[in-house]
Every structure is written in structure tokens, then in C-alpha cells.
Amino acid sequence: MRDFLIDTNMWAYWFDPQKYPQQHAKIKKRLEELPPEAKIGISVITWGEIAVGLRENTKQESYIQAEHLQFIKAKKPWVVDIRTYTAEEYGKLRGRLRTNALKRKKGLSADDLVDRFTWLELGSLENDLWIAAQAITRNLTLVTNDKLNRIREVAGDDLHIENWTT
């Protein structure tokens, strides 16, 4: 059995049943179905995304974000950090995304585009790529509502994704 890495959007749905009633109910049901030995993880990247929300929002929104952090802490998830092998996997994934983006940019070489790729061209956000690398290197199922199509394309069968809101 695989353990689970819960992405930022899933934590938000789980936290706020009034804002996301359908998603919350589905996530709660799925969690209740898990065997007791199943581990639930949160990426340090996700912690960072929530911390950004605390600092960028209005006082009211920051209060809600602080409650969100307390909610997560109360669930006592396993905190998934970044190690050297995670960085290596990230590099492989980003390199494959870059190669695929080059194929779409006919007539240019890799040297023409060194560090010039935007995340729009790669079709993925950097944080999503790091979280996918964490899931792959620890053999976790990534639970997200994000499509991650380009990451799925380059990760192949190494990346296992579930959407608990569908």
C-alpha cells in the first residue's frame, strides 16, 4: 500500500467545508476509507505555499490562513522534506519538460533557450514539479486536484496521482 502526499488544494478543501462543501465531503469520506496504517504527508513546499498566503493576504484572510495552519498541525501529517535524491528527481523532470518544450520550439537549440523557459512554456509550476519529485522519490501517491498533464507526461508510471474530489 502506498502512503499519500496531500497537495495544497486538497488541504484547503479539507479545511473549509463551508467554502468547499462537496470537495470537503469527498475528501473526508476517502480519508475514512483509508486503512489505519496509511500515512498522510504534507510537503514542505505546501507549508511554504500556505505561509505565503499568511503574509500576502488581508488581516481577515491571514486569520483564516492561520486557522488553516492550525488545522493541518492538528492532523499531525508526516512532513515530507527535500533531500538530495529529491533534487535529482526534480532535475530529471525539469530536464524532460525542457526537452519537450524545445520540441515545440522548432529551429532552436538548447543553447538558444538556456534559462529562458517560462513556466508557461514548460506547462508546469515549479512548486508542482518539486512536489511531484517528492512523491516519486518516496513512492507516494500525490493527492491533488491539479491536472499536472505535462508532469504526468514526463514522469510516466513513476508518478501516481489521485484526485479525492471527483
From TrEMBL:
InterPro entries: PIN-like_dom_sf, PIN_dom
Gene3D superfamilies xrefs: 5'-nuclease
Domain PIN: 5-147
Protein name according to UniProt: PIN domain-containing protein
Organism: marine sediment metagenome
